[in-house]
Design brief:
The protein is mostly beta strands and 122 residues long. It has one domain (3-121). 3% of the residues lie in helices and 62% in strands. It has one helix spanning 3-6, and strands at residues 10-12, 20-33, 42-44, 47-53, 58-72, 78-92, 97-101, 104-108, 113-121. The chain has a 5-stranded antiparallel beta sheet with strand order 1-2-5-6-9. It starts with a helix and ends with a strand.
Length: 122
């Protein structure tokens, strides 16, 4: 059973002015990015500049886990807190882009495989 189905909302006691509810959620995200850079050949200070390979194909898989708490404060107002963490795994399938500057190939190559982490709260 997926984690999102196990996230149960609990309230105790329902009649209390300080009733609390908590929920834990998990969200998965998949994304394919295919950016393309293309420009016409031009001359800059006597050097020819041309686009050699402007294609990139990036696969991103991500997971977000969050925990939310909701309660009624002593003054009767509803308060909330939300804490979450995000993990992304990225893979560049085409391994970078390149351009030519005066017959020299200039290549943009990040790591083909990368991992990103982030946390937040509100």
């Amino acid at each position: 059973m997926p984690l999102r189905d196990l996230a149960a909302l609990r309230c105790w006691p329902p009649s209390s002015p300080t009733a609390t509810a908590t929920a834990t959620r998990q969200r998965r995200g998949d994304q394919l990015d295919w950016p393309q850079v293309c420009f016409d050949t031009f001359t800059d200070h006597g050097a020819n500049v041309s686009c050699d390979n402007g294609n990139s194909f990036v696969l991103r898989l991500g997971v977000k886990l969050g925990h939310e708490t909701k309660w009624t404060a002593g003054n009767g107002r509803i308060r909330r807190s939300h804490v979450y963490g995000i993990t992304n795994l990225c893979y560049d399938c085409l391994h970078g882009t390149s351009a030519r500057l005066a017959d020299i190939c200039v290549v943009s190559t990040d790591l083909a495989l990368g991992v990103g982490f982030s946390v937040g709260a509100r």
